[in-house]
Amino acid sequence: MLTYSHVPPPWVLIILGFAGLLFLAMGLIWTIRRTPARTPHDAVLHVFGRAYARLFHRLSFHGREHIPADARPGPMIVISNHTAGIDPILIAAACPFEIRWVMAQDMRARRLEWLWRWQNVIFVSRSGRDRSAVREALRHLEQGGVIGIFPEGSLERPARQVRPFRRGVGLMIHRSRARVLPLVVDGTPQVDPAWASLWRRSNSSITAHEIIDYSSLGMGGAEIAEDLRNRFLAWTGWPANNEPRSHTGIDEGDKAKGRPVVAQTADIASDPESNAA
Length: 277
Fold this sequence. Notes:
CATH topology of the largest domain: Glycerol-3-phosphate (1)-acyltransferase
Radius of gyration: 22 Å
Helix content: 25-40%
Strand order of the largest sheet: 1-7-6-2-5-3-4
Number of helices: 9
Largest sheet: 7 strands, mixed
CATH class of the largest domain: Alpha Beta
Strand content: 5-15%
Shape: globular
Number of domains: 2
Structural class: alpha/beta
């Protein structure tokens, strides 16, 4: 039994308390300095984002050896299937480098402006007339940055099916000659609207596959888009969903059959070959 004589003097407790706080502060600083952030504020948000993905969505990783460990891996395009509005945050938690996502302008919800700024999103018009956004994405790649694209152009509805990949994605890869990091996202909340997944718990997973260098394969944009889709079909074993979509990314089949319509969350709507200077 602990008696008063075994209790350390107050000055010892004070020293131990300060030592513990110092240890925690040093650990937090070390973690923040290793995050892919432009400012300390961004670094803190990234740390909390990773904790949120791990604890709230119980995010698990597979194929981690395929994800570059460098905070500046050089020009690269992250390609992922699109399951929910939470996808960019989960992917950011899996990668030790900053990713600038390309997103359709009409999905820029004002109440999530903090999220767009944190992710440094590149917004692009679905009309295909927004040359500045495509130029910005290409310039970011030329400067050694990483961008993220959802090549299907809309959410997977029904879930676990692979939509056709947009030709503009292949053109972006072809023109930039950037390496491609393919990721498969699964297990996210299947809720509408898409951003409701932010507050729905899940058992999500991200599987990384080997980086692809299309610059050495001699493929054009359309061939690259088709090849990527075939790889996703093989990796997942999911069926292909070829139902037509309108230019807004809304599934025409969903409207005709009375299924819930889900808006597209990210896409390269422009043709980088014709719009980029």
